[in-house]
Structures are given as structure tokens and as C-alpha cells.
């Protein structure tokens, strides 16, 4: 028990240190935010000339990841104090993307102040909550991406083992996600060894799986015996590997990587618990012999997948 507590404490300290080591994003010269999916509000910091502000040709708007495609500004509404301006667009914007707005030759009090750039994106809390909700429900790794099905069907026969595997899976996923991000950002990219990321990620996951193996063997031998070979299979499980790969491809920072790992882990635990709850009832239900076992489990999984499709397109902010 003392070993497990010390391990958890050390893991929490490691996560805190790694998150503090995350690179700080540079602040842009101007600030701005989404007012709606067709409006962006800019804050110039000083009162600007009305004639300049309402001239739509003074603004260049594009998505950060696709700078070659320019977005036309339909109209501009200047605020009462002339410090803020609302840019209006005809077509809805993708609020999950980051937009760059270049204001040319900003004029205030008849004087040209120079160009000003704005980076428009969701707030950090909105972004993190969106990542968490997306990984847990909207893009659930089991019911929408169909990953991790081996363990999913293997340990979802009883709620007890499903909960145990869900907790173990989540802990391994969170720890491996943040450590993998650190190794990718500060080792692989620095040394130009990004092509080794899959091997490094598998090794990182294997370390934490071995740690969880030792902990479960000590504190809960019964659960350890129930999980059996599936505990070892976590090492190469596609969900465990998908999280750090998504983090790397999406260029997530430490907080975003941690959030994705937590959301994916809780989503997997939720899927296991739901499936185990149904399969326990199926054990005493009158199921045709042809459908007993895995066949009926696949059918139930398909129904869950259809239900989770209802979360598609869900947007909180």
C-alpha cells in the first residue's frame, strides 16, 4: 500500500513539473475573441479612426493552418469608444480553428500606428473542455473510432473487472500521454528523431504498464488475476498509442495532451462500464444459442455506437 501511495505521489509531482515546463505561448500584439460563428471582436487598445476601421480592405483574415485561403470581411462595426471593432462574415467560421487577422496600417488620431496582428482562438479553458468532452463522448475511442476492442470485449463481462480495467487504463493513459508529450517535444523533435515516435511511445507505455502490474499484484491480487493477459495487452493497445500520436500530430501542449489522455481514459472506462452492465443482464436473458457470447456483444456494441452518434456535432461553446 505504501508503495502504491508513493508511486501515485511521484506521478503527480512528475505531471506538475512537466506541465510547468511547457512552453509559454507568446502573446500577440492585439487581443480578439469570437462573438459568434460569424463575428470576431478585436481590441486595438487605443481609439482608432472610424474611416480606417470600417474599411474592410484593411483586414486580412485566414486560418492559421491554411494561410493561402483568405476570408472576406463582410462589414465592420466600431465600438462606442472606438477601441473595439466587430468583424462580420457572411459564412460561418470554424470555431475550433485558430484565425489570424492582419490589420494593415492601423490609424489612430490621424497617425499611422503600423500593422497589428491578432490571433483568434478559443480561451484555454474552452479549448481544454472541448478536447476532454470530445475524447470522452463525441469522439469516444471505442464507439466512434472502434479502437481497443480486444480489451473492451475481453474484460467487459463483469462490472467489477470493467471498473478495475477502466481505472488502470485511465491512469496509464494519462501518465503515458504527458510523458510521451515531453519526450516528443523536448527530445525527438530537438534531435530530429520524430520518425521514432511510435517506438518511443510503446516503450513509455510499457514502463507504466509494468508499474501498474506491480501495484495491482500487491494491492489487489484478485483483480490482477481477473485482468490476466489483458493487463499486458495495454502495452500495445491502439487507444494507448493513439493518444500520444494524436497529441504529436495535433501539436498539443502539455495541458492539452493531459486533457486528451484523461478524456480518452474516462471515455474508455465509461464504455467498459456500460457494456459490462448490459452483458451481466444478458447472462440471465433468453438469448438464442446462435447469438450467445461475442455475437450478441457485437450487436450491443453496435447499438451503443449508434447511440453515441447522437453526440456528433455537439458544441458547448
TrEMBL record:
Signal peptide (from-to): 1-26
Cell compartments where the protein resides: Endomembrane system
Top-level division of the source organism's lineage: Bacteria
Membrane topology: Multi-pass membrane protein
Transmembrane segments: 127-155, 162-184, 190-215, 227-246, 258-276, 296-316
InterPro entries recorded: Cu-Rt/internalin_Ig-like, NqrDE/RnfAE, NqrDE/RnfAE_oxidrdctase
Annotated GO CC locations: endomembrane system; plasma membrane
UniProt main location, coarse: membrane
UniProt xrefs under Pfam families: Rnf-Nqr
Keywords, ordered alphabetically: Membrane, Signal, Translocase, Transmembrane, Transmembrane helix, Transport, Ubiquinone
PANTHER family: INTEGRAL MEMBRANE PROTEIN OF SOXR-REDUCING COMPLEX (PTHR30335), ION-TRANSLOCATING OXIDOREDUCTASE COMPLEX SUBUNIT A (PTHR30335:SF0)
Name of the featured protein: Putative NADH:ubiquinone oxidoreductase, subunit RnfA
Native species: Desulfomonile tiedjei (strain ATCC 49306 / DSM 6799 / DCB-1)
Amino acid at each position: 500500500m505504501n508503495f502504491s501511495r508513493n508511486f501515485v505521489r511521484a506521478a503527480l509531482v512528475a505531471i506538475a513539473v512537466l506541465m510547468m515546463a511547457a512552453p509559454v505561448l507568446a502573446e500577440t500584439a492585439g487581443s480578439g475573441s469570437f462573438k459568434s460563428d460569424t463575428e470576431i471582436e478585436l481590441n486595438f487598445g487605443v481609439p482608432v479612426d472610424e474611416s480606417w476601421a470600417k474599411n474592410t480592405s484593411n483586414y486580412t483574415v485566414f486560418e492559421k493552418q491554411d494561410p493561402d485561403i483568405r476570408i472576406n470581411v463582410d462589414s465592420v462595426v466600431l465600438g462606442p469608444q472606438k477601441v473595439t471593432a466587430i468583424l462580420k462574415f457572411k459564412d460561418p467560421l470554424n470555431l475550433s480553428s485558430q484565425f489570424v487577422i492582419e490589420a494593415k496600417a492601423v490609424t489612430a488620431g490621424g497617425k499611422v500606428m503600423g500593422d497589428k496582428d491578432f490571433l483568434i482562438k478559443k480561451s484555454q479553458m474552452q479549448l481544454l473542455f472541448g478536447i476532454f468532452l470530445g475524447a470522452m463522448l463525441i469522439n469516444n475511442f471505442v464507439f466512434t473510432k472502434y479502437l481497443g476492442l480486444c480489451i473492451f470485449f475481453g474484460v467487459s463481462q463483469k462490472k467489477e473487472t470493467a471498473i478495475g480495467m477502466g481505472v488502470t487504463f485511465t491512469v496509464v493513459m494519462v501518465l503515458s500521454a504527458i510523458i510521451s508529450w515531453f519526450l516528443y517535444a523536448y527530445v525527438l523533435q530537438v534531435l530530429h528523431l520524430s520518425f521514432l515516435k511510435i517506438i518511443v511511445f510503446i516503450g513509455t507505455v510499457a514502463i507504466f504498464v509494468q508499474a501498474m502490474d506491480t501495484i495491482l499484484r500487491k494491492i489487489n491480487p484478485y483483480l490482477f488475476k481477473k485482468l490476466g493477459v489483458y493487463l499486458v495487452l495495454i502495452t500495445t493497445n491502439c487507444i494507448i498509442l493513439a493518444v500520444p500520436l494524436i497529441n504529436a500530430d495535433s501539436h498539443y501542449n502539455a495541458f492539452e495532451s493531459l486533457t486528451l489522455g484523461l478524456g480518452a481514459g474516462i471515455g474508455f472506462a465509461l464504455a467498459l462500464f456500460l457494456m459490462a452492465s448490459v452483458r451481466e443482464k444478458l447472462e440471465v436473458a433468453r438469448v438464442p444459442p446462435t447469438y450467445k457470447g461475442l455475437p450478441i456483444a457485437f450487436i450491443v456494441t453496435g447499438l451503443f455506437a449508434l447511440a453515441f452518434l447522437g453526440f456528433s456535432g455537439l458544441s458547448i461553446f
